[in-house]
Specification:
2 domains; four-stranded antiparallel beta sheet; Gyrase A, domain 2; Alkaline Phosphatase, subunit A
Length: 427
């Protein structure tokens, strides 16, 4: 494998150095720390227990809002949304006035450390469950010109594995190569495909650096300790053990946690901000943007615990924030500047107000604007402060300075590569 270990790269002011063995970072989408805690307590994750014993474990904080896109981009850039610009899965484009998905690389304002290493000559592999992330995670990679996964970098999703081409993904025929059909998008198999592909890449011709991003289908449907969650985390555990046994330097974290947001009868517990503001300000005068919005409506019906609101001219944002703060189900409401300072967000991609729901409450627009027909087990979702805690596990001990840093304050999930590449004792 070339170039030689010790290759360095810089991204967004952080300097990174590759160790003498392959590096595998896994983002377990939606994995609240309780899933690991349940798995360990019940003896369902013996490989994770072994990995923690060999390295370290902490509870990290994800970037806000606690959604998929901003956190995956934070992890691969090492910085907050205030720097990289991805403020959600979805936003109001101030240049056009249109509400759009934020899934194109043009929206990113920071450097990817994956791209920096790829351009410096390292072989980087990115496998993501959701194709909505692929273009952003793979932006700037020097793709494999052979399409065999043996040279250069590769980037593909399990959602569209059957469509892989040399030009777009640096690899072709992934389903034939792996011996697996493309899984259904609403399945645990979508994540397991990512891990199986990552393990096969590691076994055949190890990349220097690998980033694997899963999907939160299981976590949206199953609480920690429920049967399907147990089965899924047992499967994850086997892959974690296989990466560890193969000699990879392994790091595990999540993009966000997950909480129940429904009444005892299973009906969603939702505060419809659009309806509320229609009553307060007049019909249609305020514009509610829900940054959780993405194509996967069966996960959450576009209901999460974070919203941003654009107000009509002349409205007092501070007074309205105070009024919203008194509403049941609201944990936090503040004008743009105050909220962006607290949550490290880009002000030009945030409305006049930011509202965060409580752990058990989702925020919506108006009932008629949400398709909840596919929420068959109640609503479990994320986006708020209650979903900010995530696992942070490395399979190697830390150098003294990083060990002390970990003791002093919780890491951010986007510190993962810094800890892996700069903070571990490379045994």
């Amino acid at each position: 494998m070339s170039p030689a270990p010790g290759l360095t790269a810089t991204a967004n002011g952080r300097h990174y150095a590759l160790p003498g063995r392959p590096v595998v970072a896994v983002c377990i989408d939606g994995s609240a720390p309780e899933y690991f805690a349940q798995g360990l307590r019940r003896g369902l994750m013996p490989q994770l227990a072994r990995i923690i014993q060999a390295g370290c474990q902490a509870q990290a904080l994800c970037a806000m809002p606690s959604f998929t896109n901003p956190n995956n981009i934070s992890i691969i850039t090492g910085v907050s949304p205030a720097v990289h610009g991805i403020s959600g899965n979805f936003f109001l484009n101030p240049e056009t006035g249109a509400e759009v998905m934020m899934n194109e690389p043009d929206f990113i304002r920071a450097e990817s450390l994956l791209a920096a290493f790829s351009q410096a000559g390292a072989r980087v592999a990115v496998v993501t469950a959701k194709d909505k992330l692929r273009r952003m995670l793979g932006h700037g990679l020097s793709l494999d010109p052979t399409g065999k996964g043996h040279q250069g970098s590769v980037c593909f999703s399990s959602e569209k594995a059957h469509e892989t081409t040399v030009t777009t993904h640096g690899i072709s025929g992934v389903t034939d190569w792996l011996g697996r059909e493309t899984p259904p998008v609403y399945s645990a198999a979508l994540s397991e495909f990512v891990l199986a592909a990552g393990l096969r890449l590691l076994q055949r011709n190890p990349p220097h650096l690998m980033y694997l991003s899963l999907t939160d289908y299981v976590q949206h449907k199953q609480s920690p300790g429920e049967p399907e969650a147990n089965r899924f985390y047992q499967a994850l555990d086997e892959y974690f053990g296989a990466f560890h046994e193969a000699g990879a330097l392994l790091g595990l974290t999540a993009d966000h946690g997950m909480n129940d947001k429904h009444h005892p009868d299973g009906s969603p517990r939702v505060l419809y901000l659009g309806t509320l503001l229609d009553d307060w300000l007049g019909a249609g005068r305020a514009r509610v943007i829900l940054p959780i919005t993405d194509p996967y409506v069966a996960h959450h019906g576009a209901l999460g615990s974070f919203a941003t609101i654009y107000l009509p001219p002349g409205e007092d944002a501070l007074a309205l924030a105070r009024r919203l703060s008194a509403v049941a189900g609201v944990e936090y409401a503040a004008p743009r500047t105050q909220a962006c300072d607290r949550f490290e967000l880009p002000p030009d991609r945030v409305g006049d107000l930011v509202v965060v729901g409580t752990a058990d409450t989702a925020l919506g627009k108006r009932p008629e604007e949400h398709d909840l027909s596919q929420l068959d087990k109640g609503l479990r979702s994320h986006g708020g402060l209650a979903e900010q805690k995530v696992p942070f596990v490395l399979n190697a001990p830390l150098r003294p300075a990083y060990h002390q840093r970990l003791k002093q304050s919780p890491p951010r999930n986007f510190d993962l590569f810094d800890y892996l590449l700069n903070g571990t004792e490379d045994l």
